[in-house]
Amino acid sequence: MSGTYYLKKAMKDPQFVIFLILAVVLILVPVFAPFVAPNDPIEPDYSNLLIDHSAKYPLGTDEIGRCMLSRLIYGGRTSLLIVFVVILISSVIGVVLGILAGYAGGKVDMLISRITDIFIAVPQTVFVIALVSVLGSSLKNTILAMSLVSWTEYCRVTRALVLSLKENPYVEEGRLGGMNEFQIILKLILPNVFPYLLVNITQDIGAQLLTLSGLSLLGLSSQPPTPEWGAMLSGGRKFIQANPRMIMYPGLTIVMNVVVFNLLGDALRDVLDPRFVKKKHHFRRMREWLNKTE
Amino acid sequence: MDKKEPILELNHVSKTFTTEDGREVRAVKDASLAVYPGECIGIVGESGCGKSTIARLITRIIDPSGGEIILAGENIADKKGRKLKAVYRDIQMVYQDPYSVFSPRAGIGTFLTDGLVYHGIMTRSEALKEVGKLLEMVDLPAELADRLPHQLSGGQLQRVVIARAVSIRPKVILLDEATSALDVSVQKQVLNLLMRLKKEYNLTYVFIGHDLAVVRSIADRIAVMYAGLIVEEMDSDELEQAEHPYTKKLLQSVFSVNDRNRKVIPIENMSVSDENLQTLGCPFQPRCPEALPACKNACPMLRMTKSGHKAACLALE
Q1: What is the pLDDT of residues A130-169, one digit of tens each?
Q2: Contact A183 B119 (CB under 8 A)
Q3: Is A170 in Cβ contact with B103 (below 8 Å)?
């Protein structure tokens, strides 16, 4: 019922449609990597080391002759998988604790808020680096460490939202309408938290990608030969003078992903606001947005 | 009417709020009121006099600090948990601002059926079949069921809220400033609708408002509140013969289109401060033109006066 309303509204918003398509492409290409990638991402080709580009290797090869394009495509699997799992874990933890804190209030709120404060007080990147160094760098530990620092943001946002939402007369009306506390949270609070959450998640994808790339650059996430964008960036550093494209292509890929998911989140926020109806001048506004992100 | 048992009775109900710095504010002091089935009782008073607190006490959204609230012979003042949910079924409320009663993401149909579903009266699919009938009952087209709240006007939303309140068949419906947020022509329509529904379904209303003209147009009896006290109670057609000095002043302050030559509004520009809320004597005494020396020391009780009103004023005793 209300779903079709938002769908219709979304389809009329060019910014949303464009970036949704781009985001879907960016997700689907790595998912179907075996069908899309021209070469094996791990198999070295010693007769074609560091070539610029050719028919067989559209974006050239790296120092042991692996296809750059294929590595970028397969790399998306690792990078995006880590990012999505981290966001899933941290948003579930954050939202559950945030709702608990905001709705229950009192001592529960105090306890949860203090724990959140402690996590926020520690510089996040330093914390992740320390954690991964101690636990050993592996996919699992990277996900664990990143989730551990990023749930706090979800918790804080959700708590603040719930604090204001629960003062709405519709909560009181729900209670008079026979709902118990659990039903009020599920039917009246959560649906109104969800849109903000969705926007947060979409924009978080970019931020997490950057964190992950930073970690990989330091050699603290997936281990070679698994292709991963940040790791590729790191591997290309040695060739920055002779072969700048080894840094350029992974860098561009990361930037492209970050920009697309951020702008998708931006458009999503407008679509999901029931009172916001976008007027004309879409394209002028889009240009402004693009200028801002630069 | 007097022979019938009251459906709702407040016995010396009080509510004290504690502010953050530890001061106590007595929002409602010793309020007693009886509501009979099928009647509409109006509660009037200026801002901050405790009208809305009374509404929230009756709906048991907040707990009273003292006294009894008797609904259909049963004291509901200290009910909790599941028993409280049963109380909510018997009391429904219509709020001042219809926009904020709707969760912005739930459709009108969902809103209308929620009450029936969560009170266990019907299943969702049964209730959804009733939606069209409910909307027609409040003069709205049945197609509105598929809309979202922001696509309706304030008057339409208020009608939906009324339909939901009536659908549960509560014993008492509280109308807390139910028409104040609407513009005047819509106000009139909603008032007419309320009166029609009252007759059709034999509903009992407690109508809370600050506008004496609106309240007297719908209420059978009127209780006037001042600073947390009910100062006078009478039939609404006897309003002109009000005896309490505050009611008299309130009456003079009612605006009318006809009297353009009216003089100054007689009630001084002085609101109810904590100071007069905490006084020992009659809270209206500092503003009262008829105050006696004794008024400073004793708070009058609501008593029958010679003309058959109930008033709380030492000067009338």
Answers
A1: 888 898 888 888 899 999 999 999 999 999 999 999 888 8
A2: no
A3: yes
Whether B88 sits inside 8 A of A169 (CB atoms) is no
Per-residue pLDDT averaged across B167-184, rounded?
89
Q: Closest by alpha carbon to B276, among B293, B294, B296?
A: B296
Range of the domain at A233: 11-41+54-293
Q: Which domains does chain B possess? A: 8-242 (3.40.50.300)
Question: What DSSP string describes B248-306?
Answer: HHHHHT---SS-TT----SS-S----HHHHH-SS-TTGGG-TT--GGGGT-PPPPEE-T
As a dihedral over the C-alpha atoms of residue A255, residue A257, residue A262, residue A265, rounded to 10 degrees, the angle is 170
In a domain, A46, yes or no: no
What's the mean pLDDT in A236-240?
A: 84
Sequence-distant (≥ 6) Cβ neighbours of residue A166 within 8 angstroms: A102, A103, A189
User: pTM for the whole thing?
Assistant: 0.79
By a Cβ cutoff of 8 Å, what residues of chain B touch chain A? 59, 61, 85, 88-89, 91-93, 95, 97, 100-107, 109-110, 114-115, 117-120, 146, 148, 150, 161, 164, 168
Q: Is residue A130 part of a domain?
A: yes
What pLDDT does A24 receive?
94
Helices (H), B37-171: 51-58, 81-90, 108-118, 124-137, 154-167
Q: Is the ipTM of this complex over 0.90?
A: no
